Prior knowledge:
Blueprint: H1 5-17, H2 20-27, H3 31-45, E1 50-51, E2 57-58, H4 60-81, H5 88-91, E3 94-101, H6 102-105, H7 109-119, E4 122-129, H8 134-140, E5 145-148, E6 157-171, H9 173-179, H10 186-191, E7 194-196, H11 203-212, E8 220-222, H12 226-234, E9 239-243, H13 244-252, E10 257-258, E11 264-274, H14 279-295
Parallel strand pairs: 3-4, 3-5, 7-8, 7-9
Antiparallel strand pairs: 1-2, 5-11, 6-9, 6-10, 6-11
Amino acid sequence: MKLDYEGLFVLAAVVRSGSFDAAATTLGVTQSAVSQRIKQMEERLGATLIVRGRPSKPTNEGLLLCQHLEYVALLEAEVFDRFDGVGSEKTGPVIVRVSVNNDSLATWFPSVIQRLADETSICLEIIADDQEFTEDRLRSGDALAVVTSSNEPIPGSRNVRLGRMEYMAVCTVDFFEKHFGDGVSMSSLFAAPNITFDRKDSLPSSWMMLSFKESITAETNFVPSFEGHLICCQKGIGWAMMPTMSVERFVAKGELRELIPNRRVSVPLYWQMRNQSSALLQKISRTVEEVAKELLLEP
């Protein structure tokens, strides 16, 4: 059985856009044509590829096919590169899906994107997630490579340690005087509002365990964006765990204050990618490792 590559392009468009209508607009065809093409592929392969809904989501089989198509696109681009650039107009930019944690996206990873843009025709499609869960994207096939805090490579992948992201617990000076005037303790932390990224965010708990050998659940505002996190902290809404490289200048200016000086949480970061990677994906990996060596703390 041969794969229907035109159908795979349709499948990938649905997966990336999240709907049959949006995929049809992207491809310049009707919604019914997209639906019929997906149905034909599912009948031919004997498997459901898309779970219809709002948004429509791929099954594991659908993700596997999308991942295969991305590898084919990478290999095709490499072939054209060997023709002294003759095929560059035919292929256009190469788009690679990688999953990166939000704090890396807001600090050091943009330098990776910039360097790739300067040196290659590679464009990245970033899937943001918590560093503890990005590897699930690699396992499912939703991404070809990930930045993760896990040092256990999933089967069929290689794992490279990049360095450490350091986090500090900070708040405004006014917030500190109001809630921690008598010192930072478990009781004062319980009474002080906290800003947490989402319910998967374990950094506040890790910092409390480091500082007091125990952790509590306090009043929490869930703010799932780096920018929103920082702004809420600067407005005095609560104390927050922030990457040292992003807030140390505010601490130096006296705009923010560290709850306990030099009490930091370090999170190791790793780069995981599939073993059967192409030369272009290896180029991405080398760039990630180079930038991480320059900007992250040593492992």
